[in-house]
Write a structure and sequence with these properties.
heterodimer; A: 306 residues; mainly alpha; MetI-like fold; 2 domains; 78% helix; B: 303 residues; 11 helices
């Protein structure tokens, strides 16, 4: 177990370094000087600005100085948001994105497991058929269709919930549902096929044979094993939720890290873009690691149990 | 020596009995045909503005008109052409890379396999869409400049589409590589591969003539499931303003336009409904067809 953890830690550092370097290279080769404006700016001022924003010298020097700052935890200044550092911007944005992501994660797992289980124990009935059809329909509908539709119905017609922004807990509901939508469907499909397979195995037949009630068989014995694929999907799910929040934050006008990322691309705000990419990647890599760890742990416990 | 292909008896007839899959197949054929021949069937003017702003659906404009008075039916049709093109070409790129990578990894096995799969694992943990967005940001202007300085002025309008296809295709091959590798690991233990080797055939020949034909089933399934994924990713980028650019349209950019004009006083519902319907039906059909193909090729997993 310890070697497994150490090896994974080493590869995490490697991946992170690769991502940082790749992003740096892409940003470096990208054409367009951030300090070229329509108006002519005196050469001295451009020089001063370049020094202030640390964009001068050959590539290697820039790379090393960026890596040095990064190790100190300094993500540098934003080029667009005047006088604000990337650290401050992400410090404001990340908690918002994380709240949204966690709420969506909760909805997706709870809703998906519930729906999938329901479909599996009612296999070959209309409940199963409609749940699975609905799931596939949800997967095929992009979030930017679901989002505006929800706004239209619940905010503009019913006036139950706010249109957007980030003011009270009410403004969390619609974005979280929108973000979770496709993944409820995905997990439901995963859960259904996994539970069906588990329920056809020998130990379930034994449980039934010794006279356990059907609900006890399914919920106490079946679910525990069947939920494993869902656990291993949690890592990729977190990744998808984070990138999905780019769109959801844009639709609902939420001041999270995702909307900063989109703006940084549109504004060629290089340090904000690199900072967001690096922070996102670190979060994802750590989450993937935790998923793997919990999966190995769960899997082993179950094997010991049997 | 002729190629050895393990036949899949009854796969087609199993697929034909799957009613949802067959309806999906019919729908897809219809959509693709309509996207190809549509412009000759009616008044196709996707980029021509007129004074008739925000007209609801009527006989002259079955899908209504948009902000600039353009015929929404023409726009949806143009969207279909671009979205399907991006989806298909992107999926084909991912097919070439994924299958090739997976076959080499599985066929040579051992240390080669270990390193190649470790590399895939690493790529898996990189957030795909972030890298795609950064790459589009970086290479878009570059490609446009290159095209215009090398006498390809006519192509500049398509540079964004080409870039999207390549970048999305380069990012969708990971699952396919893993699946193909797994299949090859099982296949290469079989007698006919041993026989081919004993006859002194080269590795390349064995991979291309004996392994590849036996993989086509599973690869077709994943190709069918990759196309909707690429179409969704493209629409995601177009929605953020990083994909297809005006005056061209894809389903994603149309949906983004439709979502932008939603307001409580006047809902221009047709601008959201028709692109959403076109896109969702296509994705739904592709997903159903992919599921049906998988069931047909692998009867064990059939419900």
């Amino acid at each position: 177990m310890l070697t497994f953890i150490l090896r994974r830690l080493a590869s995490m550092v490697l991946v992170l370094w690769a991502v940082v370097t790749l992003t740096f290279l892409i940003v470096y080769v990208a054409p367009g000087d951030p300090f070229v404006r329509e108006r002519d700016i005196p050469v001295e001022i451009v020089k001063q600005m370049k020094a202030r924003y640390k964009v001068e010298g050959p590539m290697w020097n820039q790379y090393w100085s960026y890596m040095g700052d990064l190790l100190k935890g300094d993500l540098r200044l934003s080029l667009k948001f005047k006088e604000r550092s990337v650290n401050q911007l992400l410090g404001d944005g990340m908690p918002v994105t994380a709240t949204l992501g966690l709420a969506a994660l909760l909805i997706a797992t709870v809703g998906g497991i519930w729906l999938g289980t329901l479909a599996a124990i009612r296999q070959h009935t209309w409940v199963d058929a409609s749940a699975m059809f609905g799931a596939l329909a949800l997967i095929s509908l992009p979030t930017f269709v679901i989002g505006p539709l929800l706004i239209l119905v619940f905010a503009l017609w019913m006036h139950w919930l706010p249109v957007g922004g980030w003011t009270s807990w009410k403004s969390l509901i619609l974005p979280a549902i929108t973000l979770a939508g496709p993944y409820v469907a995905y997990i439901a499909r995963l859960m259904r096929s996994s539970l069906l397979e588990v329920l056809s195995q020998d130990f379930i037949r034994t449980a039934r044979a010794k006279g356990l009630s059907e609900s006890r068989t399914v919920y106490r014995h079946g679910l525990k094993v069947a939920v494993l694929p869902v656990v291993s999907f949690l890592g990729p799910l977190a990744a998808n939720l984070l990138t999905g929040s780019l769109v959801v934050e844009t639709i609902f006008n939420i001041p999270g890290a995702g909307s900063y990322f989109v703006q940084s691309i549109l504004n060629s705000d290089r340090y904000l873009m690199m900072g967001t990419t690096i922070v996102y990647c670190s979060v994802l890599i750590v989450l993937n690691f935790l998923t793997d760890l919990s999966y190995t742990w769960l899997d082993r416990r179950i094997r010991l149990h049997e | 020596m002729s190629d050895a292909v393990i036949s899949q008896p009854g796969a087609w007839s199993r697929l034909r009995r799957n009613r949802t899959a067959m309806i999906s197949l019919g729908l897809l054929v219809f959509i693709v045909l309509f996207a190809i021949v549509g412009p000759w069937c009616f008044d196709y003017r996707p980029a021509e503005p007129s004074k008739a702003q925000f007209q609801p659906p009527s006989l002259a404009h079955p899908f209504g008109t948009d902000l600039n008075g353009r015929d929404e039916l023409s726009r949806v049709l143009q969207g279909a052409r671009i979205s399907l093109l991006v989806g298909l070409c992107g999926a084909l790129i991912s097919f070439v890379i994924g299958t090739g990578y997976g076959m080499v990894s599985g066929y040579f096995g051992g240390r080669v396999d270990g390193w190649m799969m470790r590399f895939v694992d690493i790529l898996y943990s990189v957030p795909r869409l972030l890298i795609i967005i950064v790459a589009i940001y970086a290479f878009d202007k570059e490609l446009k400049e290159w095209l215009s300085t090398h006498g390809w002025m006519g192509m500049v309008g398509f540079s964004r589409i080409a870039l999207l296809i390549v970048v999305l295709g380069l990012n969708a091959w990971l699952s396919l590589a893993r699946i193909v590798r797994g299949q090859v690991l099982a296949l290469k233990e079989q007698q006919f591969i041993l026989a081919a080797r004993a006859l002194g055939q080269s590795h390349t020949r064995i991979i291309l003539r004996h392994l590849l034909p036996n993989l086509m089933g599973i690869v077709t399934v994943y190709l069918t499931l990759t196309i909707p994924q690429v179409i969704l990713d493209e629409s995601f980028l177009s929605f953020l303003g990083l994909g297809i650019q005006a005056p061209q349209a894809s389903w994603g950019s149309l949906l983004s336009d439709g979502a932008n004009v939603i307001n409580p006083v006047r809902s221009y519902w047709w601008l959201l409904l028709f692109p959403a319907l076109a896109m969702s039906l296509t994705l739904l059909a592709l997903n159903f067809l992919g599921d049906g193909l998988r069931d047909a090729l692998d009867p064990r997993q059939k419900r």
